[in-house]
Amino acid sequence: MQSFPATKGGLVPHKTAVFDNAEKMAAERANWINKNRSYYESDYRYLRFLIPEGSRVIDLGCGDGALLAQLKPSRGVGVDFSPAMIARARSLNPGLDFIEADIENEAALAAIEGAFDFVVISDTIGMVEDIEQTLRNVHHLCTPETRVVIAYFSPLWEPLINLGTRLGLRMPQPPLSTISETDFLNILDLSDFEPIRMETRQLVPYDLLGVGRFINRFIAPLPLIRKLCMRSYVVARPFWRGGERALSTTILIPCRNERGNIERAIQEMPRFGSHQEIIFVEGNSKDDTFAECLRVQEAYKGVWDIKVLKQDGKGKGDAVRKGFAAASCDILMILDADLTVPAAELPKFHRAIANGKGEFINGTRLVYPMEDEAMRFLNHLANRAFALIFSYLLNQRFTDTLCGTKVLLRSAYDKIAADRAYFGDFDPFGDFDLIFGAAKQNLRLIEVPVPYKARTYGETQISRFRDGVLLLKMVLFAFRKLKAI
């Protein structure tokens, strides 16, 4: 690969100090990592959570390549302006590519071939002279699906970090820029990036016979306490500039004992997008729902593209997985067969996906007034409480986990499905499988307010107590899988 060596004489004093320190520390860096093994293992573990193995990754300010090697990329490229660091990285990691260049050199980044799934900037952002321009240069490496992952020290910890350096407990570093969360959000906005996830980790940088690990996993992520952590992580995506896309849509309608709603769903279905297919997945009903699905399929042949599938397993989650496996369109939608969220609302979800506003769109029933008996009072209170909890757990605003109307790109669903082993088969309803999967994949989650209507046929299949227990289980499960890492 082409290199763009930095000329030391052309560097400003701040970066000259960074350059000199990197040259000096290149041979010693591995020893310092080993000396602070607990801290680095925790850092690497969280970055591996954010960045799935086998991704295309570029590490800007890669040092000796230790982090890049930990991520196990399918294509890994490291960039650093220290010749000694690059030489060390190449000798330690022959399967990865390393480029000697200043990451503030726009031409250097523009010359790198291909785009990446992840751009990593770990402990480097405080070393650059112009953070905004550096992030603007990163756009050369991105597609709309690329995620930029930035890790840096919290300004709160600067005195302790400096003390640790003076005491010989930490690898020597020149003075770095300290960045508050507010400043970082402003810089991201100026450089045309949108934050998706902002997280803090590590209260104790030492293992302390397992006590430090326990505190970092289960205590450090808690509300309020998390603001005291030493490590800050930001996941961002490029602002969408592609305009509204003409995308096809699969509308999946899971149905069990919903015979009276099947034809009505077709009659009320609006036209939108470049093409629509409708898939009924019937769940072994007792009211001839399957026969009604077949009748409606035949009656509207040539008018609507309708498929009818019979569920093999049980539960809405099984129906969703079966239907999505048979889907052929760009966008995947779920519409509950009870039609308490009207089919007429679906164009709003399509528009939010097609114009790049979000990558996972969830309906929320808690904005507009509801029809009488649509949602019972206790259910409404519980939904409000869980909204706050899940917004914290997911690092994005999320107010209505049990709204059945969920929409995402097929490409996003494929990523969730490929990484499903991380969560396992835990969710018979299917809502949390998608929500947690979307959070794990760093998808941009947004909500679309929808009216919530009372049923006109059949009985609800939701129990306030059963589903309340489910929500409590999901809170604990999400904390363990998304926070206590």
Question: Care to describe what's here?
Answer:
By secondary structure, the protein is of the alpha/beta class. It has two domains: 8-238, Vaccinia Virus protein VP39 (Rossmann fold); 249-483, Spore Coat Polysaccharide Biosynthesis Protein SpsA, Chain A (Alpha-Beta Complex), CATH 3.90.550. It contains 18 helices and 14 strands. The protein has helices spanning 13-25, 29-35, 37-50, 66-71, 83-92, 106-110, 131-138, 158-166, 181-190, 211-219, 262-267, 289-299, 316-326, 346-354, 377-394, 410-418, 431-440, 464-483; strands at residues 56-60, 75-80, 97-100, 118-122, 147-153, 193-201, 231-238, 249-255, 276-282, 305-310, 331-334, 360-364, 406-409, 445-449. The strands form two sheets. A seven-stranded mixed sheet has the order 3-2-1-4-5-7-6, sandwiched between helices. Strand 4, helix 7 (131-138) and strand 5 form a beta-alpha-beta unit. The longest helix has 20 residues, at 464-483. The protein starts with 12 loop residues before the first helix and ends with a helix. The mean pLDDT is 89.
Produce the secondary structure layout.
Elements (H helix, E strand, L loop, with lengths): L12 H13 L3 H7 L1 H14 L5 E5 L5 H6 L3 E6 L2 H10 L4 E4 L5 H5 L7 E5 L8 H8 L8 E7 L4 H9 L14 H10 L2 E9 L9 H9 L11 E8 L10 E7 L6 H6 L8 E7 L6 H11 L5 E6 L5 H11 L4 E4 L11 H9 L5 E5 L12 H18 L11 E4 H9 L12 H10 L4 E5 L14 H20 L2
Parallel strand pairs: 1-2, 1-4, 2-3, 4-5, 8-9, 8-11, 9-10, 12-14
Antiparallel strand pairs: 5-7, 6-7, 11-13, 12-13
